Each structure stands twice: as structure tokens, then as C-alpha cells.
Structures
1.
Amino acid sequence: MKLTKPIIRLIDTAITAQKGAYCPYSRYRVGAAVLTETGRIFSGANVENASYGLSICAERVSIFNAVSRGHRALKAVCIVASAAKPCGACRQVMIEFSSKDTELYLVDLNPTSGRKTITKTTVFRMLPAAFDPIASGLLPPNPQNLLRSRQSHRRRKDDRRRAVSRRDRR
Ligand code: ZN
């Protein structure tokens, strides 16, 4: 599989993030990272709790990390674990911020040998017939909804660039 530079960086970030897992109960370490349409990478690891139901998966930590900083459109998601696969809840959360093209990289990392197997798929392929916030009427009936948020990111970035060049001129 030929991987682009941003995807290699995404996978490396998820591998590093896995080291931050807090999993004294399951001892199942998971790292995740997302590449946003704005080109930023955010990561996360699973964080467990003595009250087991309060634990949260690495995928959601990484996505909430990106979204809470204003990056809502995902270009690619990467998960690292032994037999890496997102749970059903995380698949639905990924759909919320994904387009039909959002790539999903599952990196099966053998903790003893360090050997990794990479599987490439898409977020939508992993959850057919997902709950659709647009079809359900919860979001405006506009299939460009995600694209619009991407454009507003781009616009904000352009504004910042313009502000910088104005400052340079002074
Ligand atoms: Zn999950």
C-alpha cells in the first residue's frame, strides 16, 4: 500500500498516542489519530475508569480533541491496537464528522514483535445504514453540510493569512 506523507504522519502519531493509554483494567492499549481537512492531526488514547462504564475509547478522545478545537471535518482516521477495530459507538461518532471519502486506517500492531499490518477502508464502509442526522431531520437537509464547515475553515485560514500579510506590509 502506497501511503502519502500526511498518512504516514497520522499513523506515527497514533502509534505514539497508544503509549498514553490508561488501561489498568483491560490492559488493552489503543491509540488513535485523526487528520482533519485543514491538515491538522489530533490524537487520543483510551482512558479507563474504576467505574468501567465511564471509560472512553481512543477514537472518541482524538475526535473530540479535534472538534473541540474547531476542526470538524475529518479526512482520515487511524486506530492502532492489537486487532484494531472501532467499536460501534465510535463508528457512529466518526460518521458525524466524516464524508463518504473519509479514510480509515486500522493498524494492527503486535506488541511483542512490533510488526504492523495496515488495513485501509472508509468510515462509511465500517457502518452501513448508520443513523443519519440529515435524513432524520436533525441537521438541515443539505448534503453540503460538512463541505460548508470545511469551506468556513478554509475561509478562516485565508483571513488569517491576509491579516498576517497586512501586518508584514506595515
Ligand atoms: Zn469505541
2.
Amino acid sequence: MTYNFLEEFPLSRMRRSRLTPQIRNLVAENNLNINNLILPLFVCEGSNIKDEITNLPLVFRYSIDNLLKLLEQVVSLGINAIMLFPVIDDSKKDEIASEAINPNNLICRAIRAIKIAFPDIIIIADVALDPYNITGHDGIIDDRQLVLNDETIDILVKQSLIQSWAGCDFIAPSDMMDGRIIAIRKALDHNNLKNTSIISYSAKYASNFYGPFRDAVGSRSSLKGNKKNYQMDFANSDEALREIAMDIKEGADAIIVKPALPYLDIISRAKNSFPIPIFAYQVSGEHSMIYFAAKNNAFDFISSYYESLLSIKRAGARAIITYLAIDIAIFLKNNQ
Ligand code: PBG
């Protein structure tokens, strides 16, 4: 935006538009809406389980029965989209992530149960092998510990198909293999799953902020090395635009930038470069950072959380994946 006139005091007084809450709301350029929130959820085996997660306060692992109970509240609050992550028992993990392509695995059973009880909720299923792998990596590795690209894609395609058959609405590949979007799109179309959307984690960085998530799915202690040979180097931003451009060409319906708050520049560049919905993932470490600082009285929890979400919107995100979606939805209902 460019100005063709100069504003000058005292004719212009910026503070006039900040005078009352009503005026501030009237002129607000951005806002946060319940429709823009996506709630990530961790699902585990068993019944009546609600387990705390180390370093991810306020977030729990739920067995399917308890997840269904929680979803009643989620739906009644008006949250329309959830993202599911499975916590796989160690006994089912191996080097080729076999459980990832078992049509009766935990995630597929969860998807089916949720779709029966809540047919309208949008279910987003993650595609990556780390919850299923003894190595903790998103793909299968060679003897130099590098993730094999094309061999991994073959498994990801099967994983996408079984999750779509189970009834998920969106497939979200978070693995960062090259060429997986087109491979998945073709397989979905070939199997008459033309209405299954793909949200691609196009710009996913090799971030330290994923630590608590790895505690949640139990991949942290087993992770050998790091994920820098497939996830993006956080020194880069032009590269993110190349990743996004390729994924759009390969058939992505929306793209994700992840993490969110330390990567607002990437969200903003993506928004200005591509006419496609940009989603942002406020990751586990961002959540915990705000929680622990607020717990030590550095600032107020919910208002600083809200500020960080609104900043992500302002940068250009259409929707935000956030662990606090329920509390934020309640906050929005009470404050708007
Ligand atoms: C793995 C995956 C990760 C997250 C979502 N999917 C972790 C990783 O890449 O190691 C992180 C989400 C978070 O930290 O909240 N495919």
C-alpha cells in the first residue's frame, strides 16, 4: 500500500481511532474467528484414558472413547476441524513403519468412530511415519541414517489411502519428501477419492520447537540424529516459496507453514506470493513457551496466547492449528 498524501498532526490524530473498545473493534484490520481454528488431538489405545504429556501442559492423550466425549464439547463450541496424531505402542513400531499401513490401526479406528458420531467435523489426518517408526524419523532410513525419499513415498501413499478410506476429509503430509504431493494426489484420484483434500506441510522447518510433540507421540527418545536432511533449514525463506510453488503445482489444496510465530515472515511472503489458503501450525514448543512464561507470572496466559494467534492471522494465515483451540473458542465467545 502506498500513500498519495501525507498525514499531519494536528489534523490527524491517530489516537482518535483507539478511543473506546467499540471504535477499536470497528476499525480492527484482523480478527480471530472460531471458524479459523483447527484443534490437534493425540489419540492412544485403551479405554477411559486421559494422559498428561510431559512438557505439553493442558494437552492430553485420549483413548477413542474419551476423545468422543471431548468432541461433544468441541463441536458445541463451534470448532469444525481437528487434526489427529496417534500414539503407537512401542511393540507395534518397526523399521519400516508397518503399522502405518494397517487399515485397522489406531488412527483409522479413531477416524471411523469420529465420523460415525460427528459426520460434519473436518478430520485432518497426518501423513508421516514418525509415530510408527523405531527410528523416530518421518520416513525409512538408509545405512547412513538418511531418509530415503522415493521408498518412503510408496509407504506414504498407502498410508494416505487407508486414512482416506477410513473417512478423513483432508490428508496432511508432514514428512517433507520431494514429490509426495503428486504421488498422493494421483493415488487418491485413481482410487476414486477425488474429494479428499491435501493440505501440504510445504514449509516445514527442522525446528527445536517440536520437542513436546515428540514427547506426546513417544518419538523423542528414539529419534536418532535430527531431521535436517528433509525438513527445511531455518536460515532460509526463498526456499519456502519454491517448496510451496512445487506443492501447488502437484495438487495441494492448501499449504501449511510450521512453526508459526518464529516464522511470521514466511507466512507473510507465502500469503503475498500465492492465492491459496495458507494455514499456520502453532507448534507444541510455542504453546509450552507461552504457558511456562505465564505460569511464572511473566504475563497473562490467555491474552498473550490470543495476541500470538492474532499476530499469525495478521501475517496472513487463513486458519491456525493450535493446541489451545478449545480455551480460545471459549475466550472468543466471552469477549466478542
Ligand atoms: C511429524 C510431526 C511433527 C509435528 C507434527 N508432525 C514433529 C516432527 O516433525 O518432528 C510437530 C508438531 C508440534 O510440535 O506441535 N511428522
3.
Amino acid sequence: MEEKILKLKEQLENELSKVQDAAELESIRVAYLGKKGCITELLKGLKDLSDEEKKSFGQKVNLLKGEVSAKIDDYKVKLAEAEVLKEIEAMPEFDMSIPANLERGSYHPITLVQRECEKVFKSLGFVVEDYSEIVSEYECFEALNIPKHHPARDMQDTYYLENGQLLKTHTSAAQNAIYRKYKDALINEGKPIKAIFPGRCFRNEATDACHENTFFQMEGVMVGKDINISNLIFFMKTMLSEVFQRDIKVRLRPGFFPFVEPGFELDINCLICGGEGCPSCKQSGWLELCPCGMIHPEVLKAGGIDPEEYTGFAFGLGLTRLAMMKYGVKDIRDLNSGVLKSMEQFTDGE
Ligand code: FA5
């Protein structure tokens, strides 16, 4: 029996050294360890031995079984490594010194206007905040003085998640969190809240040359003592003249949003048609760009701020529309098209 075991070990080494692939290795495994394999046969043969021999040979055969199984596993790893090496060797040589024959990418027009706006507002002492695209109904509506079943919700249908949260319809959804974050510094240190928070918004609505279902806005708020409409108009004018670097005709008209009082619509003269009327401005010559107003007392209260003591303004700049005007993009849908060539023409490879 001992001799048999030794012979089997030699034979296995010999066979393993010749193995070329996984299929050959598998047939060796079956030949040794399979139901009719030689080691299984050895184990079966134990029954004809005396009790003494059974004990000593039984142990040896089991040891052999473990060794054979470990050796086969070892070979499996070796074969896999050899396979990878073969693939690497077959690869064409990689020369890192060859210059890449790729054209340079460019920033998206929306990223560019967003950065410009951020630069302007930062220079005016505003902080830039980032906020989630998924928000609660409370943040998107209730905290903004839009209770359930308020008709203002009809204008902002969106995509609801199974957990009751939703994709935010406007950057105003972050207002409550911003007030809560900065209210202590306002109340205890007298530091006015000055923040902008750009973000992607989603609405379940039909698209056209100036409406997308996914677009960018940039919200801005300023809260402190004696903040008034003149402050609001000053910041809006400064931002537009910095972004466009020229005089732009704007008009301010009354607008209704439950979270501001009074509320305004700030429109800019359409720069695609020069104000004559075209599909980009729905033939009106004006484009709604930045609704704004004085923050409603209920909204301040929801943010933990006493409206008897503090006032503030808020605006919701349509960043995607601003990019359209700045870069002369006639159809807003081109901005989400993902066509690099068409994006490059607006940004000149910036
Ligand atoms: C709002 O979203 C308010 N949250 C703005 C606001 C903030 C008002 C703070 C007062 C105080 P509105 O739905 O009008 O308002 O959208 C604001 C701007 O986002 C629009 O003027 C427009 O420039 C842009 N916008 C709105 N809907 C779309 C759309 N479907 N596609 C592209 N841009 C859009």
C-alpha cells in the first residue's frame, strides 16, 4: 500500500508537469479524486485490510487525498497566472513617450457660466454651497410656504422616489437647510447670511426651445438686518453686467411665488433675436431668467429666523438659460445633447 501511495505521488507530479490548460487539469482531478478516481479506489480497498492496517493506511490515504487536492489547486492558480502573462505578452508594446493623438476637451457652457457667477458672488462676499438633488417634500414645498394641495405645486411636477423623496424642482429646496446652517452666526454674531447654491433641477414637463426637463439653476439668498429690494436689484445688476460684460436690457415685473413677498420676474432682452421675437424666447423678445423677491416671513420662520428682526431677498437664476444667452444657443435641448462637437463651438475649446 505504501508503495502504491509513493507511486501515485510520482505519477501525479509527472502528469501535472505536462498540463497545458484548465481542461487537462480537470481530467487529472477526476482521475485522482473523482468518484471512480484512483484515490477513491484506494479508500474503498481499505475494507479488505485488518483493523490495524485500516487505521494506519486510512490515515496515509487521507493525507494523500489532501496533498493531491492542494497540488491541483496550486496548479489552477499557476495556470491562471500563465494565462494572464500570455495575454500581456500578446499586447502591442505600449510606448509612453508617444504623444496622445487626442483633441483637448472643453468645459460645458453651463459649467462656464456657473463658474463666472460664482466668481462674481464670491467677490461680493457670498459663500457657495452644494446641495443634494434628492430632497424631501418638506424642503421642496412645505418649508417654502407651499402646503400640500397648493396650486403652485402644479407648476412644478417632478419625479417621486418610492421612499417619498423627490428630485428637486428648484434650488429653492435648499433654502431651509441654508438658513438653519447659518442662523446661529446671524443671530449671535450679527453676520448676514450670504449664500449661493447652484444645482440641477428636474421637472416633469414638455420640452421646447427654452424648456428642458433637467436644467440648472443658481439660488442666492441674503438675510440680515434691513435688507431690502434695492439690495436685491444691486446684486442682480452687478451679476448680469459682470457675466455679459456689456449693458443688457432687463425688466422687472411682478411675479407670484409663495416663498417671496413681494415677488418679481426678472427678464432679459432675448440676445438670440435682439428682442424681435424667436422660438428661443417664445416670440416675446424677453426671456424669464431670474425670478426673485423678498423672502416670505413664513419661510424665514421655518428656517429658525425671526422675521420681525431680520429680512432678506432670494433669487433663482436660470443658469441653463443664462448659458443659452451668453453663448447664443438657440435651443436649450442642445445643451443636454452630449454632442461634444456642438458644445465646443460655443466655448471655443476654453
Ligand atoms: C423657481 O424655480 C423659483 N424657485 C425661483 C425663485 C427663487 C423665485 C427665489 C423667487 C425667489 P421658476 O419656475 O420660474 O421659479 O424658475 C426659475 C428660472 O429657472 C426660470 O426663470 C428659468 O430661467 C429657469 N427654468 C425654469 N423652468 C425651466 C425649464 N423647464 N427649463 C429651463 N429653465 C427653466
